[in-house]
Amino acid sequence: MGTITRSGAVRKPNETMRLIITTFIGVVFGFLVGISFPTISLSKLNFPSSLLPSIDLSYIEDKNSGLSTQTFLHRAWSSVKGNRSSPSHSQNLNDTSKLWVPTNPRGAERLPPGIVEAESDFYLRRLWGKPSEDLTIKPKYLVTFTVGYDQKANIDAAVKKFSENFSILLFHYDGRTSEWDEFEWSKRAIHVSVRKQTKWWYAKRFLHPDIVAAYDYIFIWDEDLGVEHFNAEEYIKLVRKHGLEISQPGLEPNRGLTWQMTKRRGDREVHKETEERPGWCSDPHLPPCAAFVEIMATVFSRDAWRCVWYMIQNDLVHGWGLDFALRRCVDPAHEKIGVVDSQWIVHQTVPSLGNQGEAKEGKAPWEGVRERCRKEWTMFQGRLAQADKTYLMEMGIEPPNSTAR
After folding, report:
1. What is the pLDDT of residues 325-337, one digit of tens each?
2. How many Å apart are CA 269 and CA 278, to the nearest integer?
3. What's the CA gap between 55 and 79, in Å, rounded?
4. What is the CATH classification number for the domain harbouring 218?
5. Pairing of strands 141-147, 337-347
6. How far is 60 from 138, CA to CA, in rounded Å?
7. Which residue positions in the chain have pLDDT lower than 50?
């Protein structure tokens, strides 16, 4: 036992001496490294975030700053001490590079939520004065017409049926815009000119739901509509009264071809599917009791349009087939889709868009346009059916009329 005690006593001074020598060598080595590499580059430092959580690295990034190793370590240590004493400063408020807000719209996650403007409108703004004083009135509704200059008189009559509560947007398929300035209202309208396109092509590209979010209702109308018996403000009142999310004015029953469902009833304000059984529900060309409006003079609520816009196919420009699919965007469709009878219009069936086609293989321009319309209808039905089938199969549901394998 005595031997063990003496050995411990002898070993202890030796260990102390080794520690002193090691420390001295480390200090000398550190000093030599310091004078050999007087500056530090941010790209060569990888400090754990837990060690240096709030160091402002902006002044380290500058290669010409001449920041010495000692100065950097001093600031780093001061920052760590400050963190331990003040937890509320755990993040440098001046460092916006760390912003990431997943609830922001896609692509805007790096912005603070308070600066994000996700929606827009067609309100005209001045180039001077205070922005808050730009608008004397903010229109609550939007009406769009797809037009050619040859129909200027008809469009002039139609626009005058819409009050200052409506923003006016014209899509010009013939490229003629400046001539419309003969009408005073045209100077306040929005004009979009792209040659030989349809209203659904324009709608897909210029009526994104976030662009028209300021408007309670969006009218997407053709140019060949007679509006002698139509008043837009009264129409809106009836749409609200009857809870219609997707609607159209009744069509004069004695003019042109139209679906039975959309013909005007002379004894009521509005008619819906639930009021028409069995009547039009027995039409062999319609799905059984499907809520239905045509696409020539459709009116959408803001929420319904958000759904419909996403359903419009980017390459199918005529919109044929949409009529039968609109019911997917409201629930219950038979209550929220309807025809406003007491505010009715006349379809004049002017084949203006057909004349924008191209004569080919002995066919007149309008024949090629009509042929594509029919093809698009078939394509849209096929895509919708396939999308339904794919979704049901992914959900583990056997699609209707399918054969189990």
Report:
1. 999 999 999 999 9
2. 20
3. 6
4. 3.90.550.10
5. unpaired
6. 51
7. 1-11, 38-74, 76-78, 80-81, 84-85, 89-90, 278-284, 286, 288-290, 403-405
| Helix H or strand E encompassing 353 | none
CB 183 within 8 A of CB 156: yes
Alpha-carbon gap, residue 250 to 253, rounded angstroms: 8
pLDDT in tens, 102-126: 999 999 999 999 999 999 999 999 9
Q: Is residue 230 a contact partner of residue 241, using CB atoms and an 8 Å limit? A: no
Question: 251 in helix, strand or coil?
Answer: strand
Could you list the beta-strand ranges (E) of 68-216: 141-147, 166-172, 190-193
For residue 161, being part of any structural domain is answered with yes
Of 279, 269, 273, 246, the closest CA to residue 340 belongs to: 269
186 with 160: CB under 8 angstroms? no
The amino acid at residue 365 is P
Helix (H) / strand (E) element for 4: namely helix 2-36
Residue that is written with structure tokens 């999310």 in the block = 245
Tell if the pTM clears 0.90, that is, is over it: no
Range of the domain at 342: 136-350
> β-pairing, 190-193 with 166-172?
parallel
Q: Which residue has the tokens 């139209």?
A: 258
The two most distant CA atoms of the chain are separated, in Å, by: 126
Domains in the chain, number: 1
Predicted confidence (pLDDT) per residue in 137-190, tens digit: 999 999 999 999 999 999 999 999 999 999 999 999 999 999 999 999 999 999
For residue 21, give the amino acid letter.
I
Give CA torsion, residues 350, 353, 357, 359, to 10 deg: 10
Domain-located, residue 290: yes
15 found inside a domain: no
Asked if the structure places residue 46 within a domain, the reply is: no
Encoded tokens for 394: 């992914």
